[in-house]
Amino acid sequence: MRVKPRFKDVASVRSGLKKENYLADDGIAGVVYLADRLGKPVLIEGPAGTGKTQLAKSVADMTGARLIRLQCYEGLDESKALYEWNYKKQLLRIQADKTSDSWSEVHDDIFSEEFLLTRPLLEAITSEEPVVLLIDEVDRVEVETEALLLEILSEYQVSIPELGTITAKQIPLVFLTSNNTRELSEALKRRCLYLHVDYPDLEREKEIVLNKVPDISENLADQIARIVRSIRQLDLKKAPSVSETLDWARTLMLLGIETIDEKEAKETLHILLKYQTDIAKAAKELSVTK
Amino acid sequence: MPVLDLMSGFIVELRSAGLPVSLTENLDAMEAVKVIPIEDRDAFKYALGATLVKNNAHWRVFETIFEVYFSLRGPEYEINAEGKPDDFWREMQEQADQVKGQGEGKGSGGGMDSLTPEEIAAMLMRALMSGDQAMMRALAKQSVQRFAGMEPGRPVGGTYYLYRTLRNLDLDNMLQKLMDANREMSKQELSSLEERLEKDEFESRIEQFKQEVESEIRRRLVADRGAEAMAKTLRKPLPEDVEFMHASRDEMQSLKKALYPLTRKLAARLARKRRHGRKGPLDFRNTVRHSLSYGGVPADPKFRYPRPAKPELMVVADISGSVAAFARFTLMFVYAIQHQFSKVRSFVFIDGIDEVTKYFKATEDIGEAINKVNTEADVVWVDGHSDYGHAFEVFFERYGKDINSKTTILLLGDARNNYHAAQSWVVKEMRKRARHVYWLNPEPKSYWNTGDSIVGEYGAHTDGVFECRNLRQLEGFVENLA
């Protein structure tokens, strides 16, 4: 079942992601490379808005694979994550020819793949073409539901009592994201490679801004990255994420601002920060002379 | 040493530092090492990190151990006192000569070694000013060699050397100097925003330099004592094992971050308890709807579940001197809880007791709230020494009527009562009225009921007394509530 590796080395992952407009640092590229080589899922943790989901999308684009996404939420169960029997169709089948078939024939028939509705997880492993499976915000499901994922994550197979075990035709690249609202179970963590995506450092953030915002000047991008870094150092309720940095950069571009001065910074702070107390604090801090 | 041997020593060290490395993770790491060459130090580090460290709070501990075991090996790290005259070294000597003044102009005679501390400081300032990384690294090496006064076999920790090095460079005043120099250099007046940004930039460069110095010291210590011994001396407790009573400022910060998820968990636990167990009456609509899947046979009856009542919480915390460090943590805890529960009332006491709910409600800023509690709350009755008995009595008298069957009471303190009257009947009364009464004690269990501690006397009337010295224990308490 071992397929040939997708990536040559870490550097090729990095350059490949860059082509998809995703700037990876050494850690990110290294773990993606490793995930492919070891055939293991990647658990991505980190603050909101640092491009965790985007990483999975970009990897899918880069490898030309189909992205299958399972959005987790409280109350997710196996009929929505793994598979479900198509009751209505089974019922029709039984009623369609009541007379001809014997009981055992009908029984074998209605529990066949024809009557199986595949959900994202099962779909990911039965798919013929290459697949990237994204299990988004896995920390939202209850601890008990996490167990659903374990079989597929370690063995790449799904056991269906009536049908037997379905094993993967190809090993998909699997990404799980978590916003760290709760501690995930040891069992889940053990099966995954762990990647913590934090806010990017100054240089990388600047590069991201330059990359994502068309026509922005180097000077402005530098200034933006530096102001955002300063703001992140404050003790805030919610620090600005990368996506908010980008929004801010776009806004400044629309307003036709070339260099940010104090007044403009303060007037547009609400794009970067979402809490009134945070905005007040940042505005105060930024104008302090020392 | 072959990689495999290094790896097993490394993993043993990770485990002794408290990181939970399982056997499968160990095997994964070995597998990963096969595909990532050890020469690529960064990739190697991330590969090990991804397979062995599954909690971001453990990353720093991991990094230190990794540095000791792997980063400091290899030819480029050979210690050699004369210093190899590579290109960079020469360049540095030239710079050194410039600083010394052109008058002497010979450049030989050790160059760097003949510099006075002031001159090195001046070079450092120039490097920090321009953000010249290579120069900073070289200066870090040089200053450790010159100022740390390291002697082989001397049983002194790295912090001492760090202190000596930094003191000689006068790094404390470096920021101010840099700012002044920067102001002079720029033509026009800097706006306050620009100035602030410059300051942050310099701060991060100085921080970077400090780290270079630190790792240089570690490198030399490892060379002197060997990786195993070094890793042992560098061992620091994981964030969840830091004792509240002895936490440093930095550690307090990281504790604060870890608190929010914990309180959310606490809220969930207390609420969940009510949802389980009792089933409500038949939900007719829901049953009929589901019966469609079975061809109209109501095979899967559905019931209404009672909506979980919002839990109410009362936190009563000792903030006297004997538990001062714990009290700071307690207040942070209370503050964090406040945002999770619809009804939390918090009380603090020393020998008098006062309700402080309003201080926490009024402000978003935790520092301000704690400050207000410390200055405004009326908690001293006679002499400002803990008197649990009196505090409890007053509590019961004033607020006892608000305790009902939905209330959970958390008592936080060491129960060191200064030999006052215990008044433990109050706790007994509380438990009769409330749903639960728990006591969290920041002292090690072996100290309980020694001296003036009477936690046993109170504890007999509660639903449980829990040792709560670090985050792991607090988490355990929350975990076991259900």
Summarize the entry for a quick read.
The complex is a heterodimer of chains A (290) and B (482). By secondary structure, chain A is an alpha/beta fold. Helix content of chain A is 49%, strand content 14%.
Topology diagram in text:
The complex is a heterodimer of chains A (290) and B (482).
Chain A lengths: L9 H10 L6 H13 L3 E4 L6 H12 L2 E6 L6 H4 L1 E3 L1 H10 L6 H8 L5 E3 L1 H7 L4 E6 L6 H13 L1 E4 L3 E4 L5 E6 L7 H6 L1 E4 L5 H11 L5 H15 L9 H13 L7 H6 L1 H4 L3 H11 L4
Parallel strand pairs in A: 1-8, 1-9, 2-5, 5-8
Antiparallel strand pairs in A: 3-4, 6-7
Chain B lengths: L2 H14 L6 H13 L5 H12 L6 H13 L15 H14 L16 H14 L2 H15 L10 H12 L4 H12 L6 H34 L1 H8 L14 H27 L8 H8 L20 E7 L5 H15 L4 E7 L3 E3 L1 H6 L3 H11 L11 H12 L7 E6 L12 H9 L2 E6 L13 H5 L5 E3 L3 H9 L3
Parallel strand pairs in B: 1-2, 1-4, 4-5, 5-6
Antiparallel strand pairs in B: 2-3
Helix pairs in contact in B: 1-4, 2-3, 4-11, 5-6, 6-7, 7-8, 7-10, 8-10, 9-10, 10-11, 12-14, 12-20
Main beta-sheet annotation of chain B: 6 strands, mixed
Number of strands of chain B: 6
Which protein chains are joined by the largest interface, and how many residues does each one contribute?
A: A-B, 50 and 41 residues
Report low-confidence residues of chain B grouped into runs of 5 or more: 75-86, 101-110
